[in-house]
Structures are given as C-alpha cells and as structure tokens.
Specification:
- InterPro entries: Gp88.
- This is Gene product 88 domain-containing protein.
- It is a single chain.
- The N terminus is likely disordered.
- The chain contains eleven helices and nine strands.
- By secondary structure, it is α/β, with parallel strands linked by helices.
- It is globular and about 50 Å long.
- Helix content is 37%, strand content 17%.
- The strands form two sheets. The chain has a seven-stranded parallel β-sheet with strand order 1-4-5-6-7-9-8.
- The chain has one domain.
C-alpha cells in the first residue's frame, strides 16, 4: 500500500520531521514544529509545550492562520506524539533525517511553534545538535531557567538561541548580557527603542545585534490586545497586577 501525506500508513508517525515554508526556503532554513502552547492530542491527552508562556499565548502567530488548518494541526500533533511516545525512536529518526544532503550547511529552526517543554526533551535536542556538527541550529525560547541549567554551561557549538520576552520568566533576563527578542507594534517602534529588527531574515535573531525587535504579526485580534505596547511591557503590567492582588501578608513574607 502506498504511503499518503506526511505520515506512515500503519503507525501514523511522521515520515518527514522537518518542513520548509517560503520564508525559510529564502534563507536556507528548515522548521521543526510541535503544537503551540496547550491543548489535547487526538487520543485525549493534555499537553503544554510552552510551560513558561505569558501574554505571548494571546498574540502567538502559531495559534492562528495556517497553523489551525486540520492537516497542519495533525502534522504537529503527530510530531509531538512521536516525541512523547518514543523519545529514543524520535531522536534517532531526527538524527537520521538530518543526514540527508539537503541539510548540510543549512539552518534548522527548532520550534517555529512550541518550546523546550521538558528537561529530557531539551537534552535530546542538544545531543541531536552534537550528532550533526555540519548543520546549524537555532531557536527562540522562554525557558530561561531550563537553558541556564542545561544549555548555557556547555552549549553545542552549532546551536544558537535568543530568549523571547512576553513569558513567565521575563524577570530572569538581563538586557545587558542576554540575547533577547521582544515583539513591537511596528518597525518605527523598534528603531525608536534602539533595537535591531530581524524582519529581513529570521536568522538575524541569532546572528545580528543582541537586542532583537520583532514586528508584530498582522493578526487583528492580536494587535488589538497588544494595543501599541511591546510584549515585555504588557507582560510587566500583568505581573504587577498579579503582585498587587496578593494578600499583604504574602507580599511582606509574613
């Protein structure tokens, strides 16, 4: 029986793990995708692939548009189920796929949706990077604590990352030392803040200046929620409101 679509006919595990859209093709990069943020798999299991998400979940491009199409959602669910149900098999399949000539000297964006949701999953990706030294890997992440513990002490030489603001761990980031990305309402706001835009190429997020400005996606509902603010500013407002709602005894530590 011939195979159909991106899945094998009997196990429903993806035959092709990495994809490439028009933007990635232009810069010689490929994507690895899992579902964004929280939901349920087809078998009913709940998941949260972005445990440190904050206000970003309200404006996330990966929860709109083509990402919601049934075939795309099914592919991302299949990818995540492969990771969860057979971690060694998924890791071996990824290393094997990356052996193909098309990936040599290419860039792999780990997660155009989703994040490094567990320690074991993060460690697996670091092993994959080391297993394929001729390939360049990069990622955005809000998992600051996880990266501080597992990645920063000894990162693979071929892996670059940028921390993105708008998450639950924003306070742990230092603009003076960390490579950081923030979402701005428009290009003028990026320039006015003295940050550098990655609009010309997504690779500028890890290859350009350390403070990275991202132009907000043209999603009407998301733009209304952003209301002209930077993602970091909106997150700071939410965090301050949360502190203000705490009982006085808790705030004072008594």
């Amino acid at each position: 029986m011939p195979e159909e679509g991106p899945f094998t006919t009997n196990t429903q595990r993806p035959r092709r793990l990495l994809t490439q859209n028009r933007e990635m093709r232009r810069i010689g990069a490929w994507n690895w995708s899992i579902p964004a943020w929280a939901g349920r798999l087809p078998d009913g299991r709940p998941y949260n692939t972005c445990p440190s998400a904050g206000i970003c979940r309200e404006i996330c491009y990966a929860r709109h548009g083509t990402y919601t199409w049934p075939t795309v959602r099914a592919k991302h669910h299949a990818n995540l189920m492969f990771v969860l149900d057979d971690p060694p098999g998924w890791e071996a399949a990824m290393v094997a796929e990356l052996e193909r000539r098309r990936f040599q000297d290419a860039w792999i964006r780990i997660h155009d949706s989703g994040d490094f949701f567990s320690d074991d999953y993060t460690k697996a990706w670091m092993r994959i990077c080391r297993a394929r030294p001729g390939i360049n890997f990069y990622a955005y992440s809000k998992e600051v604590d996880r990266f501080r513990r597992l990645v920063e002490p000894d990162p693979p030489p071929n892996f670059l990352w940028v921390y993105s603001l708008g998450g639950a761990q924003d306070a742990a980031l230092d603009p003076a030392t960390d490579r950081i990305a923030d979402i701005f309402p428009d290009e003028n706001a990026i320039t006015a803040a003295g940050w550098s835009s990655q609009e010309a190429s997504d690779l500028l997020a890890v290859l350009g200046p350390r403070l990275v400005g991202i132009f907000a996606n043209r999603i009407p509902a998301a733009l209304r929620k952003l209301a002209g603010r930077r993602a970091s500013n909106w997150q700071a407002e939410i965090d301050a409101e949360r502190v203000a709602r705490r009982p006085e005894s808790h705030v004072n530590g008594t």
